[in-house]
Design goal:
By secondary structure, this protein is mostly helical. The chain folds into two domains: about 130 residues, Orthogonal Bundle (Arc Repressor Mutant, subunit A), CATH 1.10.10.10; about 80 residues, Orthogonal Bundle (Arc Repressor Mutant, subunit A), CATH 1.10.10. Helices cover about 55% and strands about 10% of the residues. The chain is built from ten helices and six strands, in the order ααβααββαααβααββα. Strands 1-3-2 form a three-stranded antiparallel β-sheet. A hairpin with a 7-residue loop joins strand 2 and strand 3. The two termini are about 30 Å apart.
Length: about 220
Amino acid sequence: MELREYLSIRRAYNLVRQEQSTDYRLTFAEFAILCRLQVAGGSLKTSDIAEYQGSLRPTMTHRTKHLSKLGLIERLKGDIDKRNVVCKVTEEGSACAARLCRETCGKISVGQALARISPERMCKYVDAMGSINCMAGELIVLGLWLGGEDGRSITELVDDLGLLQPTVSMSVASLGDNGIVERMDGQPGRTGRVLLTEKGMVIADEINAQISGLIIRRRLRTKQ
């Protein structure tokens, strides 16, 4: 998978997410779980989903319980080992995943990467992308890496990533405190620009390497 494709989908879903009601505003990780179950075509153990997303068991329990509370998945005891919880997407969950994929496709403009992707293909892309946990800060690092040596302004980052302005501003401040980005507010011609530091470049390279290794699968083997 290419970085431009990854950021195109993440930007589009960020815009879709802002339009959802507060109760049904799924994180990208939760959206990816729905797509994972859709692509699997059956039930998956919570432990397998946690391994797929590189998450701790308590984190995955929280995510799946939230999806279950919304009626999007079922959490059932395993047939053999009752300690294992098995997750299965519901009809409402399938409809939700299909709608979110369709709306995400609709937010990708002509000229952007994957502008002609189908909702069915989008589901498989989101499934693959769910294995990489990129929060707002990491998305900003990737956006700056893709933006080149001239950096980006806060306004440009908001547009590039589909994030809210306060989220971008707070994330940039945090990244700056950790030596990952720097603000060029006092330099002629670069006033208001945000650039990656050497440390930030290393982090961006590492995340991009993970994205480059993503494979869009045809169908998963289910585990009961």
